[in-house]
Design goal:
Strand order of the largest sheet: 2-1-5-3-4
Order of helices and strands: EEHEEEEEHHHHHHHH
Number of helices: 9
Structural class: alpha+beta
CATH topology of the largest domain: Fumarate Reductase Iron-sulfur Protein, Chain B, domain 2
Strand content: 5-15%
CATH class of the largest domain: Mainly Alpha
Number of domains: 2
């Protein structure tokens, strides 16, 4: 396959970026998108050109690092996959592919396609955890009965990998799908009930402080989420937050 790549290049957060065009040939349809990017960078290095900076780690669809906006879609044209799971067979010979970073006020560009998503870390640090007494007097979690439906919903919410596709897709750059998933994975379990009011209040307040927008109710976040996190979690978070606000 012969492709034309239009890639956002930006030296650092303070510099003005622009789109650069690169031609690449002999791309195998069986390559992953990141393997194609590796191939491009090898060619750029051989020519003495600074390679394109992009995030990646596990390349197994688990870590959520590979945040690329490809042809106007987070993680590209496929569904329920991350960029590292996207294969070049989804494109055709002669295609022009536009590749940009995830764009949001709370996701400032570090370099090229790499953005700073530490805002997600701060939201989780604000309440996305369960405090456990580890003095030796702990209760075995398996001894606590949990309804199967609640356990399944909690596991589904916990599947969120924090990639930020929901933010990149939302026209308001809302992080509500991400935050609601982190709230839901504990709100549905008895272990999470103890700190439920503080958790949702602290996490929502931190989300607002980071500069994320409000939910648009268009559902684009669920469509683009590589793990298929449901909008039901946003409704649950809103209920949890209302209850916490009324409880004071």
């Amino acid at each position: 396959m012969n492709l034309t790549l239009k890639i956002w290049r930006q030296a650092n957060a303070d510099s003005k970026g622009k789109t650069e065009t690169y031609k690449i040939s002999e791309v195998s349809p069986d390559m992953s998108f990141l393997e194609m990017m590796d191939m491009l960078n090898e060619e750029l290095i051989e020519k003495g050109i600074d390679p394109v900076a992009f995030d990646h780690d596990c390349r197994e669809g688990i870590c959520g690092m590979c945040s690329m906006f490809i042809n106007g879609e987070a993680h590209g044209p496929d569904r329920l996959v991350t960029t590292c799971q996207l294969h070049m067979r989804k494109f055709n010979d002669g295609d022009t592919i536009t590749i940009e970073p995830f764009r949001a006020k709370a996701f400032p560009v570090i370099k090229d396609l790499t953005v700073d998503r530490s805002s997600f870390d701060r939201i989780q640090q604000a309440g996305g955890f369960v405090s456990v007494n580890t003095s030796g007097n702990t209760q075995d979690a398996n001894a606590i009965p949990i309804e199967k439906s609640n356990a399944d919903k909690a596991f589904d919410a916990a599947a969120c990998i924090g990639c930020g596709a929901c933010v990149a897709t939302c026209k308001n750059a809302s992080a509500m799908l991400f935050v609601s998933a982190k709230v839901s994975q504990y709100a549905l379990l008895p272990q999470g009930k103890v700190e439920a009011t503080d958790r949702v209040t602290n996490m929502v307040n931190q989300m607002d402080e980071e500069g994320f927008g409000n939910c648009t109710n268009t559902g684009a976040c669920e469509v683009e989420c590589p793990k298929g996190i449901s909008l039901e979690n946003i409704a649950r978070m809103n209920r949890e937050y209302l209850y916490a606000s009324l409880k004071g």
